[in-house]
Design goal:
Chain lengths: 358, 266
C-alpha cells in the first residue's frame, strides 16, 4: 500500500497519457460529471441526487473524487451506443475492425466495477464471446476508487457491491481528507505496480490505512436506501400479478431512460442501412431497451405492448431472472435508474411494496 | 424497369417539409436516379400527369376544397406518405380546433367574409387511407430519404417510434429535465430528430408528435403535482405542433385530467 499526494495522483494521470493510454475519466459537462476522454481530473465537484433529480455542486475543497455517479456509464466505451459491425458490398461482407487503443478508465466506483463484471458474464461467458467487447476489455487498465461518500440514491451495500471495490481493478484508490486530499493506493496487477512505481509515493502507515478504512466505512454509513436481496427473486416471481404493477404503470413513461443509464443493461438491436443506390448495406448495432415497442416484437406484434408489462419485464429481469441467466443479480446498487428517471420512479420503493402486499 | 414516379402535394402548411427534400442537396441527384420526380411544383414547373407511384403529402385539411382534393390524390397514388406535423396531426393550425373559428376570422381579417375555411384542421389520415406517416416539424431529411428508398425498394422504412430520450442518451446528452429542472417533452415524444433541442441544452417541444405507448397523462400529472407545472403551462405545452394528435387531446382540450399519484396499497 502506497500513500500519494494529490499532486502524485495528477502526475499519475499524466504518466498514463505519456504511456499512450487513451485516458477516460470524469469530465464536467452541461451540469453533470460525465465520463469522457480527459486531460486532468476536475477538482472540487460534488452532486446532490434524489429520485428524478441531479444537481452538480461545488464542494469548496480539493477532492478529485468528491462526486458520486453521473449519467455516464463505462458501458458506453466497452459496448458503445452505436457501432457499425460490417458493410455488405457486391455480396461480400467487409467487417469493420474495432479500434485497437490502450485505454485507462479513471475513477471506476465499486458498483461500476461490479457492473463491468456483470457485463463480462453477459458478453464473454458461454459459447458465444463478443469479440469487440473482449478486445476492449483486454486493452483496458482500470483505476478504481473506493467511495468516501454516498449519494442519497446509492444502495450498493444491499448486494455487497460497494462502497469498497471487491475485485477486477488494476489499481484501487481511496481518497481521504477532501479538504487537502491524499490517496491510499493499492496496485492489484503487475501492470499497475509497474505504472505506480514511475510516480513513487511513500509506504502507507498503519494510521493512514485506518483513516482510509474509516473514510469508506463513513460512505457505507451514509447509504440510506435499501434493497434486501434475501428471497427477492422468489418474491418477485410470486408477485407477477400484483396490483402494484398497475400503480407503477400509471407513473412510468416507457421512455427507456433507466435502461440507458443502467451500467448492466446490455440490450441492443441491429439495423441494416442501405446507401442511396442500394449498392452497400451497413449493419449497425445500437442500444435498445425493453421499454421500446420493437424490443419484444415478434410476428404479429410486440409481446410487451403496455407500460405495465414493460416495467415488470425490466424489474423482474434485473432483479430475478438475471440470476438464472447469468448467476448474479443485474443490479449493483448504483441508483442511476432512480436519479435519471424523469418522473423519479425508485425501484427500491417499488420492490418494497411488491414484497409487502399482494 | 421504369423508375417509380414521385409527386409532392401541399395542403395547409409552411412548405418546410417539402423543402427537406430539396435540402437533400448532395443526395438529391441520386434520389432522382431512383425515382422520377413527376410533380413537385416547389422544385420544377415540369409536371407530369398522374397516377403516381408515391405521393408525399404535406399539410393539413382546412377547407372543403382540401377535402375533395385529398380524395383525388389518394385515388391517383399507389402509395401515399404523409410528411410532417401538419399532415400527420393537423399542425399548429389545429389550434383552431380549440377556438371559435368565426371569432378568430373577425379578429384577424378586415373582411372575414372572404375567408372560406373549415372550423377544424385535421390530419390526412382522418380523410383517406394513409400508407405511412413521417413525423416532425419539420421532418428530418435523412428520415425522408429512408422512407423514399424503402418504398422504392419495396420494404418497410426502418424508423423507430421510441422516445426522444433513447436518441438523447445515445448522443451522450445530459438530461435537461433531471439535471436542470427544464420541462422536456422528450419522454413522451416520437424520436427522429436526433434529440436536437436537448443537444442544445433545452427541453423538447414535442414537434415530432407522441411516441408509441406515450404516457401523456402520466407525464403531465407528474409535472403538475410534483414539478409545479400550472394548468396553463400544461395547456401551452400540449397545444403546439401536434395539438390535435389524439394522444395529446386529453391535455390540449382542457378537459379534466390528472390522476394524483395513487396511494400505494398498504
Amino acid at each position: 500500500m502506497i500513500h500519494w499526494t494529490a499532486e502524485q495522483l495528477d502526475a499519475f494521470v499524466q504518466h498514463l497519457h505519456a504511456e499512450s493510454y487513451e485516458v477516460i475519466g470524469p469530465v464536467i459537462r452541461d451540469g453533470a460529471v460525465t465520463y469522457d476522454a480527459m486531460e486532468e481530473l476536475p477538482v472540487g465537484y460534488g452532486d446532490e441526487q434524489e429520485a428524478g433529480r441531479y444537481r452538480l455542486t461545488r464542494r469548496g475543497d480539493l477532492s478529485r473524487f468528491g462526486y458520486n455517479l453521473g449519467p455516464s456509464t463505462w458501458k458506453q466505451f466497452l459496448s458503445p451506443p452505436s457501432e457499425t459491425l460490417f458493410h455488405v458490398r457486391e455480396d461480400l461482407i467487409h467487417p469493420v475492425v474495432p479500434e485497437a487503443t490502450k485505454r485507462a478508465f479513471i475513477g471506476v466506483r465499486a458498483c461500476e466495477m461490479a457492473a463491468i463484471e456483470v457485463q463480462d458474464r453477459v458478453f464473454l461467458q458461454g459459447d458465444y464471446r463478443e469479440h469487440r467487447y473482449e478486445q476492449r476489455r483486454q486493452q483496458l487498465f482500470i483505476v478504481a476508487v473506493n467511495c468516501s461518500q454516498a449519494a442519497a440514491t446509492c444502495f450498493c451495500t444491499a448486494n455487497n457491491d460497494g462502497p469498497a471495490v471487491r475485485s477486477g481493478a488494476d489499481l484501487v484508490l481511496t481518497e481521504v481528507n477532501p479538504a487537502q486530499p491524499w490517496y491510499l493506493v493499492e496496485a492489484k496487477s503487475d501492470l499497475a505496480k509497474a505504472l505506480v512505481s514511475k510516480v513513487g509515493g511513500s509506504p502507507a502507515t498503519d494510521e493512514q490505512l485506518d483513516q482510509a478504512h474509516a473514510a469508506v466505512e463513513a460512505a457505507a454509513g451514509q447509504i440510506s436506501r435499501q434493497l434486501p436481496r434475501a428471497g427477492l427473486r422468489e418474491a418477485l416471481f410470486e408477485a407477477l400479478e400484483h396490483s402494484h404493477w398497475d400503480a407503477v404503470a400509471n407513473r412510468c413513461l416507457s421512455c427507456g431512460n433507466c435502461t440507458q443509464v443502467c451500467p448492466t443493461c446490455f440490450c441492443f438491436t441491429t439495423r441494416e442501412e442501405a446507401d442511396l443506390m442500394n449498392d452497400e448495406v451497413s449493419h449497425r448495432r445500437v442500444w435498445d431497451s425493453c421499454f421500446t415497442e420493437m424490443h419484444s416484437y415478434t410476428t404479429g406484434g410486440p409481446i410487451h405492448r403496455k407500460t405495465r408489462s414493460r416495467y415488470r419485464q425490466w424489474l423482474t429481469h434485473k432483479l430475478a431472472s438475471w440470476e438464472d441467466q447469468f448467476g448474479v443479480s443485474g443490479c449493483t446498487g448504483c441508483g442511476r435508474c432512480i436519479s435519471w428517471c424523469p418522473v423519479g420512479i425508485d425501484l427500491t420503493e417499488e420492490v418494497q411494496i411488491l414484497r409487502k402486499t399482494k | 424497369m421504369n423508375k417509380p414516379s414521385l409527386a409532392v402535394f401541399k395542403f395547409a402548411s409552411c412548405d418546410g417539409c417539402q423543402l427537406s427534400l430539396l435540402d437533400c442537396e448532395d443526395e438529391l441527384l441520386k434520389v432522382a436516379e431512383r425515382v422520377e420526380i413527376a410533380n413537385f411544383p416547389e422544385a420544377s414547373s415540369r409536371m407530369l400527369p398522374g397516377p403516381y407511384d408515391i405521393a408525399l403529402v404535406e399539410g393539413s385539411i382546412t377547407t372543403e376544397d382540401d377535402e375533395e382534393r385529398i380524395q383525388e390524390i389518394r385515388a391517383g397514388s399507389r402509395i401515399l406518405i404523409c410528411i410532417g406535423a401538419c399532415a400527420t396531426a393537423g399542425g399548429i393550425q389545429a389550434l383552431r380546433n380549440y377556438a371559435d373559428i368565426e371569432q378568430m376570422a373577425r379578429d384577424v381579417y378586415p373582411q372575414p367574409a372572404y375567408i372560406d375555411t373549415l372550423a377544424t384542421s385535421t390530419a390526412i389520415s382522418e380523410h383517406v387511407r394513409v400508407d405511412y406517416e413521417l413525423h416532425g416539424c419539420p421532418i428530418n431529411k435523412h428520415q425522408l430519404l429512408e422512407v423514399i428508398l424503402a418504398f422504392t425498394a419495396g420494404r418497410r422504412p426502418r424508423l423507430a417510434r421510441d422516445s426522444v430520450c433513447m436518441e438523447c442518451k445515445a448522443a451522450g446528452n445530459i438530461c435537461v429535465m433531471v439535471a436542470q429542472g427544464e420541462t422536456c417533452l422528450g419522454p413522451i415524444t416520437h424520436a427522429g430528430c436526433g434529440a436536437l433541442c436537448p443537444s442544445f441544452g433545452r427541453g423538447c417541444f414535442g414537434c415530432y408528435g407522441v411516441k408509441e405507448q406515450a404516457e401523456v397523462e402520466s407525464f403531465f400529472t407528474f409535472m403538475r403535482y410534483e414539478r409545479g407545472m400550472t394548468e396553463s403551462q400544461a395547456l401551452a405545452a400540449a397545444r403546439s405542433f401536434n395539438a390535435n394528435a389524439p394522444a395529446l387531446r386529453v391535455i390540449a382540450s382542457d378537459r379534466k385530467w390528472g390522476r394524483r399519484r395513487e396511494d400505494s396499497p398498504e
